[in-house]
Amino acid sequence: MPIPLSSVGYAVGLDTGLTFAGGLNTTSLLFGNAQVDLTLGINAFKTENEKFGLTVSPGLNLFYGFNGGDFSLYPQLEGVVWKEYGEKNNLFFGGLGTWVELDREKAHGEVQVHELMPYITLGHQFTGKKWNVQLEARYIGFTYPNDNIVVDYLGPFSTGTSGIYFGVSRKLGKQ
Amino acid sequence: MKKVILLLSIGFVASSCLRMDSFLFNPDATITEYLLDDFDGETEIQLDASYNLPDSTQHIFTLNSDADGDLASIYSVYVGDISRIATDTVILYLHGNAGHLDYYWPRIKLLANVGKKNRFGVLAIDYRGYGLSEGTPSEEGLYADADAAMAWLKENGLTNDRLIVYGFSMGSAPATELTANARSMQSSKLMLEAPFASDEVMVQDASGLSLPGSFFTNLEINNAEEIAKVDEPFFWIHGTADSFLSIKTHGEVVYKNYDGRYSVAHRVQGGEHSDVPAIMGYDAYNDAVLEFIEYAP
Predict the structure, then answer these.
(1) Nearest CB partner across the interface for A72, out of B2, B198, B212
(2) What is the pTM of this model?
(3) Among all residues of chain A, which has the CA nearest to that of B246?
(4) CA distance A8 to B31
C-alpha cells in the first residue's frame, strides 16, 4: 500500500542564479519527528535564452525524533537538467541525486556498507501565473537489492523503490 | 528580483507499510472456534496424516494474562497428557505474528512428534488479540501472555529444568525476553527459528540508512541485546532465503551476540521465512530438535 509523504516548503531567490529552499516533512511530523530539508539551488549552466539549464543543489536533511530524542543528518547532492518549452514556460526536468550516509555503523555495532542512497528523478512542471504544478517520478536506492528485507518495495529489477511525487507551488511577491 | 515560492508536495513511495508497529502484529481474530486438524485455511507447513495425534492428547483452554493491569483471557492448546507435566519435558511454542493457533497447528504437531508421538508435551498460546484470545496485541502483552503460559505449566508441576522455550519469528521476542529475564519460570533451553534482531534493524533494513528505530516505532524489542544475557543452551535455525527477516541482518546478529555455554546453528539452504522445517525435511528437522533437547548441556 503506498504511503503518502507530504511536505510544505518555502523557497526564496537570493540571486539570479541562486535559490534557497527549506521544507518540513509533515508526514514525519505526524509520526513524531521533525524532518527538515535545506537546499541551495545553484544555476550551474543556462543557455542565453534561458530555456535549458542545469541546476546543482547541495542540501541537508535533518531529523529529530521527539519520542527518543534521536537526531540524524544526511547531506544531499542533486543535479537536475531542465528544459523549458512553450509559451507558458512549462518544463521537463530530470536528474540524479543522492543522500549521503555519514554513519559507518548500524544497529548492534554492525557495519553500515551503504555510503550513498542515490535516486533518479524525472518530472514535469506545469507553469502558471501564480501557481506551478509538478509531477515527478523517482527511483530511489536503485543500487541496492530490495529483497530479503522486511518491506515489499516496488522497484525495477528487484532493486530500490519507486515513488510518485505531486507538488503545488504558489509564487508570492513580485515576479 | 527576489522570487518567493511556497511549496506543497505530496509523494507516494511504493511500500507495503511505513510504521513498523503495524508490521509486528498481524492477527486473525475472525474465527469462532479452533479447528486444529479440521482447519482448511492456509497453514505454514503441511503434514500428512502420519503426524496426526490422538484427540485425547489435545486440550484447548484459556489462561488469564495480566500485562501491567491489562487483563486478557487468552487461548492455549496443550498437546500431551496434562497429568504428566510434573514429569514430562515440555516445549512452549511461541508463534509468529500472523493468523492464530490453527495456522500454526501443523508446526505444533511437528514438535509433538519429535522423538515419537507425544514424547514431549507442547504448549502453544494465541497472544491477546489473536484467534479467540481477548484483548489487543502489544509488546508487553506478548511477554505477559507467554509468562501466563509458563505460570500454568508451573502450577501443573513443571520445573525449570524441563521447560524448553521455542520462539518463531515474532515469538522470538517473548522467548528471548523471558529466558533472559525470567518471570514465572526460567527455561532450561532456548530455541529460536527465524528470529528478528530488533525493531531498529527492521527500520534500517527498510530504509537502507542508519536511522534510529525510534523514528518509526515505540517498540523496545531487542533480541540482539537480550540474547547476550542468556546462558542457557541456544538452538538457532534460519532459512538462508528468508525474504522477511534476513538471515544476515537478523538471525546472524542474534546468533553472534549469544555468549552462553552452548549453541547450535542450522542455516537451512533455500529456506524462506515460514517453510524451514519443510525445506530442511521434517525428519531432519525433528532429529535436530531432538538432539538439541536431549544432548545440549
Answers:
(1) B212
(2) 0.88
(3) A148
(4) 45
pLDDT tens digit string along B129-180?
999 999 999 999 999 999 999 999 999 999 999 999 999 999 999 999 999 9
Which of B200, B215, B226, B267 to probe by mutation at the A interface, max A CB count within 10 Å?
B215
DSSP bridge partners of B94:
B167
The ipTM (two decimal places) reads 0.89
| Distance from the Cα of residue A167 to its chain's centroid | 11
Question: How far is it, in rounded angstroms, from Cα B195 to Cα A95?
Answer: 40
> How far is the CA of B266 from the CAs of A18, A164, B95, B287, in angstroms?
58, 42, 19, 12
**Cell 527576489 belongs to which residue?**
B2
Cβ separation of A1 and B16 shorter than 8 Å? Answer: yes
What is the CATH code of the structural domain delimited by A9-170? 2.40.160
CATH class of B20-295: alpha beta
Sequence ranges of the domains in chain A: 9-170
Judge contact between A49 and A78, C-beta under 8 A.
no
Question: Where in chain B are the domains?
Answer: 20-295
Single-letter amino acid, residue A129: K
